[in-house]
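Q: What would this chain look like folded?
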Amino acid sequence: MTSIHQSEMLGEPVGGPARGPVAEPVYMAGGAPALGAVPDTAGAVVGIVGLGYVGLPTALALAEAGSTVIGCDVSEARLADIASGAVDLLETDHARLRRQLGGERLRLTGDPAALRAADTVVICVPTPVDEHLTPDLSAVVGACRTVVRHAVPGQLIILTSTTYVGCTRDHLVVPLAGRGMRVGEDVFVAFSPERIDPGVALHAQETTPRVVGGVTPRCRGRAAEALRRVAPYVHAVGSPEAAEMTKLLENSFRAVNIAFANEVAELARELGLDPVEVIDAAATKPYGFMPFYPGPGVGGHCIPCDPHYLLWQLRARRIHPPVLDAAMTAVALRPSRVVERAREVLAEAGVRLSGAKVLVVGVAYKPGVADWRESPALAILRGLHDAGAYATFTDAYIPRLTLHGEELTSEPMPAAGDWDLVLVHTRHPGVDHGWIADHPQVLDATYRLTEVSHRRVP
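A: My prediction, written as structure tokens:
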């Protein structure tokens, strides 16, 4: 396995996901489900609420599959960016966007009343955490409220945003009942967690299985029919709550293993070993081991956020999960550990961190994406600044970012800089990093810069 960033999907078993015994039916693409015949939904009208990194690819996949898509977003700027093609997508999705913008199957709107024309409404809004790592439910609560207000009889509503266990009932089922709409008879509700891996073509929607939990068997069946348009198969579980917990488990599992990989990396360094060499060797075992790799921290929209939805819910019940709690604490502290390691590397060279010129190479949260939200690079840059260093960045995908209320601009000619330390955070594909070897002090937080013999690692 080569050059894997911590925020990517790590350690997928070869040959696809394990398929153990299940109590509910599994709807296979191209086959008949256990709950009756599946109608041809190619002409269905689907409303997508939220056109971000999940909603837009979902809208494009559905449009390509033959559905008419109403893409609804509250941000006029986002709608304008989509209409102009100025959005961060896989090249395959850019091609889809160009085709659909020139056709009649994709309609962009900021008016939620347009959702009344949809047979199916899919909610794809962000569920971040705030600066205190507390879930910020404002977007998902607002989106659910909007969808409920415009719901019409016969409509299917699928929530995909990662959230706490019970959110689907709290914010869709209960308010729909308040409108006098019987879920499972008048309107149909399900939860199906999104599985989008930005920047990784290998994990396209049409090759990634989906999980769905309906409020009733009819809800589950309707949702499975809709999702079969864009997934190789749909795995049904017995309730929305089971589907909600599934997503929390997926990303909590990754967080725990990444925290341990970072711990192993530091132990290996103390013992004079290359942690990647050790992990690669362990990964040759065909059973009982799944490789996760160390890095500068955890970025993206899932791993740094999703487990906190579970921790938050458990704290309210006065339940303490020690393994997950410790892992998320380690995840949060990882960037500060990288800063401390920068201090150590500079000190060994006789340079104080305060006043040092430090260049961070790559600030995107993973290779191949132009997205720095939740990136550990931000915490690393803040830590360097707080320590008195002159710290800036270079990133071929990200021209500027905001830090401490100030705008930083990517260094256009990083090779020419007289840097006391080059800290490698993200290496984008297709970008020449050969110049890094010319700098005497290199801290490689990717653990993959093997061509630089004098590099140090966190």
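The longest helix spans residues 240-270.
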